[in-house]
Amino acid sequence: MFIKVVFLVEVNLQHDCCDGQLVHAEAVADCLPKQLSLATVQSLSESFKALADPTRIRILHNLTRRELCVCDLAEVLGMTQSAVSHQLRYLRTLRIVKNRRDGNMVYYTCDDAHIVGLLQMGIDHITHVESDGESVYE
After folding, report:
1. CA 94 vs CA 25, 63, 90, 97: distances in Å
2. Amino acid 129: pLDDT
3. H/E element holding 127?
């Protein structure tokens, strides 16, 4: 038996839009010359995409604590080595993590302090919001 559940959400579009069509020329003129390049927007989007995956967040969080091999990460996360390795490959191509080989073992560490900073700011934000008794999903 298949049951389809539909959630209806009432959206107040007027709350998010201006009441009129008045364009503030000074504000527009101030912003126009300072637009990000398409390449910058694409790269930034990829970085945030890397942080948008729960598994990658868990991997990065553990790698901020210490250098770990794939076996150790798989054990900590309760995942297969193959699944962890797949995520590490993605993070390595973005130069967010780096690896080093020691015999048969491959160890990983974070390779981008900016991404680690973003991750920590995100954790701090969620901790702050939740300590105020709010839910980010309400």
Report:
1. 39, 15, 7, 8
2. 83
3. helix 113-131
Task: Quote the CA–CA distance of 55 and 13 in Å, as a whole number.
Answer: 34
**42 residue type, one letter:** Q
Q: Which residues contact 130 (CB under 8 A, 6 or more apart)?
A: 136
Query: CA 110, CA 117: separation in Å to the nearest integer?
Result: 11
Is the distance from CB of 56 to CB of 90 less than 8 angstroms? Answer: yes
| Alpha carbon distance 51, 90 (integer Å) | 11
pLDDT of residue 20: 81
| pLDDT score, position 137 | 58
Residues 70, 37: Cα–Cα separation, whole Å: 36
Q: Assess contact for 59 and 84: CB atoms under 8 A.
A: yes
pTM: 0.77
98: which residues sit within 8 A by CB, 6+ positions away?
92, 108, 109, 111
pLDDT at residue 34 above 80?
yes
